[in-house]
Design brief:
The protein has 478 residues and is α+β, with helices and mostly antiparallel strands. It has 18 helices and eight strands. The longest helix has 30 residues. It binds protoporphyrin IX containing FE. GO terms for molecular function: heme binding; iron ion binding; oxidoreductase activity, acting on paired donors, with incorporation or reduction of molecular oxygen, reduced flavin or flavoprotein as one donor, and incorporation of one atom of oxygen; steroid hydroxylase activity.
Length: 478
């Protein structure tokens, strides 16, 4: 088999065992970041390997990732068992994250347009974020100095309510048990353990992984039921009758929220792949992609401020000096805050919360850097490697915003920081995520100094989305 690979000119890579490929190395290392780093150092810009029945190619160079992810033929998604399960539980619809072909193109175009129309990064959205941040700040004022205070609890509600308001207009009480369970389920879905990974890659391992399979089924179902409830609450029973009801309102104003826009598009039959059945998974996808990502980025931002107090101090002084008192700055205010912007970019680099992006699938045989890549191969962007390789950064293990400040004190961005990925499937929530993180971190640092008593651990958790290790932070009023 290895001889065949060499003959067909597959990209070099680690040794593949029959049936399981290079999986034992990934499983033994408890995650892919470590082996991917070692293989990138060893094989260069591209390497390939097998995971059970799947062929995978990994890209380790930012320019190459950009070039390859801009090709239509690399815009598919691997169709794993969990994807099929989600689809079945949602009336055989496909959502956006794992959709392909015409369905994906139409849903992506709709989402980008809708996010733009709903004012991502602009005043209307910023007002919603300010209202939610207010609740978080109140919680910090009340409990921020309590020894057992876990800031993640009120922060979850804040970030979850921001995306919920964009999607359905609904906001939930931070103590609403149903909502909190849903949010926990969404979080768990993105934090994989080895068992879940194996169950998806090698379906026959289900026999040994019954417990994992059961918990994945339960969680997936609970998420679908919650979203179904959100849809019913908003539009009644999401059926033909609901369509008529919604039609009867005859409103031209369809810029209220994401769900109303979706229903309007179905009614207007503007896009052929849009059906009422598709609403639930679409909302679920947007919630899953939009909650824990921004949430984890903020966890990283807070922890890094504790780990690097001099950076925290510099940001605070810059904010105090430039932003009027009692004002929460937002991206569109264009305040000259070069050090703050550099800090946010460095948080994205250092956190690398989606370390290997979301896998793409090659839809037709192709070549990458002269190597043969057959149809159905997964293409993975090694974003964590790009963010931490000494090829691209000096002292990458050090959190240092000044790497993005030029000789005149101006902020200079870098095309080597790509937390939202690049190309045709680049994140559609980038503007919202940036707006949230910008405003929440600024609002907190304007009012509090963050400190940790005890040992700091800056290692990542594992999964599709990677969090910080658990720490309790003191929020000391300034
Ligand atoms: C800091 C926060 C975020 C990070 C780091 C992030 C990162 C990513 C990455 C790496 C991808 C994969 C792109 C690819 O396949 O090449 C992605 C896709 C996606 N993201 Fe985000 N994301 C964030 C926030 C959000 C938010 C707030 C939303 C929604 C409001 C969102 C919605 C999506 C969707 C729908 C996709 C799938 C796009 C497609 O398949 O065409 N993300 N994101």
């Amino acid at each position: 088999f290895e001889i065949y690979r060499r003959w067909r000119k597959y990209a070099p890579g680690p040794m593949n065992y029959p049936l399981i490929g290079a999986l034992p190395k990934i499983v033994a290392a408890h995650g892919i970041v470590g082996p991917f780093r070692a293989w990138a150092d060893r094989y260069g810009d591209v390497f390939s390997f097998r995971m059970g029945p799947y062929e995978a190619v990994v890209l380790n160079d930012p320019a190459l990732i950009r070039e390859v992810f801009n090709k239509d033929v690399v815009s598919g998604r691997p169709q794993l068992p969990i994807i099929k399960l989600r689809s079945e539980l949602n009336g055989n619809s496909h959502g956006i994250i794992m959709a392909e072909g015409q369905h994906w193109r139409e849903h992506r175009r709709f989402t980008l347009q809708t996010m733009r129309d709903l004012g991502m990064g602009r005043a209307g959205m910023q007002q919603k974020i300010i209202e939610e941040v207010g609740e978080f700040i109140d919680a910090l004022k009340k409990d921020g100095l309590r020894e057992d205070f876990d800031y993640k609890i009120p922060l979850h509600a804040t970030v979850a309510n921001i995306i919920s308001r964009v999607l359905s207009g609904a906001r939930y009480d931070k103590n609403d048990a149903n909502f909190l369970r849903f949010v926990d389920n969404v979080q768990d879905a993105l934090r994989e353990d080895n068992a879940k990974f194996l169950w998806n890659i090698l379906p026959w391992t289900r026999v040994f992984l019954r417990k994992t399979q059961k918990s994945v089924f339960r969680r997936t179902k609970e998420i679908a039921v919650f979203i179904d409830g959100v849809c019913k609450q908003k539009f009644g029973d999401v059926t033909e009758q609901a369509l008529k009801l919604s039609n009867a309102t005859g409103r031209d104003d369809v810029t209220v929220d994401f769900m109303e826009r979706y229903v309007h598009t179905v009614q207007a039959k503007q896009l052929s792949s849009f059906t009422m059945n598709g609403l639930g998974l679409m909302v679920e996808d947007m919630f899953e992609a939009g909650f824990d990502t921004s949430n984890c980025t903020l966890h990283w931002a807070f922890l890094l401020m504790c780990a690097y107090p001099e950076v925290q101090k510099t940001v605070q002084l810059e904010l105090d000096h430039i932003v009027p008192q009692n004002t929460i700055p937002s991206v569109s205010d264009n305040y000259p805050l070069p050090y703050y912007e550099a800090t946010l970019l460095e948080v994205h680099r250092f956190a690398s919360i989606v370390p290997t992006g979301i896998g793409h699938r090659v839809e037709k045989d192709m070549t990458i850097n002269g190597y043969f890549v057959p149809e159905d191969t997964w293409v993975i962007a090694n974003l964590h490697y790009v963010h931490f390789s000494e090829k691209y950064w000096s002292h990458p293990e050090v959190f240092d915003p000044s790497r993005f400040i030029d000789g005149e004190g101006k902020f200079v961005t870098s095309d080597k920081v790509m937390p939202f990925s690049v190309g045709k499937r680049r994140c559609v929530g980038e503007a919202l995520a940036k707006a949230e993180v910008y405003m929440i971190l600024a609002a907190v640092l304007q009012r509090f100094t963050l400190q940790i008593n005890g040992r700091l651990d800056l290692t990542q958790t594992r999964g599709l989305v990677c969090d910080t290790q658990h720490h309790l932070i003191n929020f000391i009023p300034r």
